[in-house]
UniProtKB/TrEMBL annotation:
Alphabetized Pfam families for the sequence: Glyoxalase (PF00903)
All copies of domain VOC, residue ranges: 2-127
CDD domains found in the cross-reference section: VOC_like (cd07263)
Matching Gene3D superfamilies: 2,3-Dihydroxybiphenyl 1,2-Dioxygenase, domain 1 (3.10.180.10)
InterPro entries registered for this protein in UniProt: Glyas_Bleomycin-R_OHBP_Dase, Glyas_Fos-R_dOase_dom, VOC_core
Name of the protein in question: VOC family protein
Coiled-coil regions listed in the entry: none
Length: 128
C-alpha cells in the first residue's frame, strides 16, 4: 500500500493552481471539470508519477472553520519536503511569499512555514 492522493483545501482553485505551480514549482497533472469545481491535481516535477496533491475546494461547511482554526493557532495543514529549507525560503521570499515561521532547526529537521494564499499554512522541511 502507498499514498496515491493527498488533498489541500483551497478557497479558489484558479489562485491555488497559480500559486502551487508558478510559485511553489509543482506541475499540473489532472484538470477535470466537475460542475462548479474541478478535479485538479499537481505533482512534483521530480516525481511526475508520484503522489498527487488535490487542490480541493473548501466549500464544505466544516472545512473553513477547521482551516481558520489551524491558521489562527499557527498550525500547518501539511508539509512538503525540500532539499534545503534556507535556500527555498530565500527563493520563495524573493517571489513575495509570506512566511509565518522563518527557517528553524528542530533537532534533525529544519522547517519553515508559509502562507499559501488560499487559506492554509504549509510547512517546508528537510532532514539534516
Amino acid at each position: 500500500m502507498r499514498i496515491h492522493l493527498s488533498s489541500v483545501c483551497v478557497d479558489d482553485q484558479d489562485k491555488a493552481l497559480r500559486f502551487y505551480t508558478e510559485v511553489l514549482g509543482f506541475v499540473k497533472k489532472h484538470e477535470v471539470p466537475l460542475g462548479e469545481h474541478r478535479w485538479l491535481t499537481v505533482v512534483s516535477p521530480e516525481d511526475p508519477e508520484g503522489t498527487e496533491l488535490v487542490l480541493e475546494p473548501d466549500s464544505h461547511p466544516a472545512v473553513r472553520p477547521y482551516k481558520d482554526a489551524l491558521v489562527e493557532d499557527g498550525i500547518p495543514f501539511t508539509s512538503f519536503a525540500v532539499d534545503d529549507v534556507h535556500a527555498e525560503y530565500a527563493r520563495l521570499r524573493e517571489l513575495g511569499v509570506r512566511f509565518t515561521q522563518e527557517p528553524t532547526e528542530m533537532g534533525p529537521v529544519t522547517t519553515a512555514v508559509l502562507d499559501d494564499t488560499c487559506g492554509n499554512l504549509i510547512q517546508i522541511a528537510h532532514t539534516h
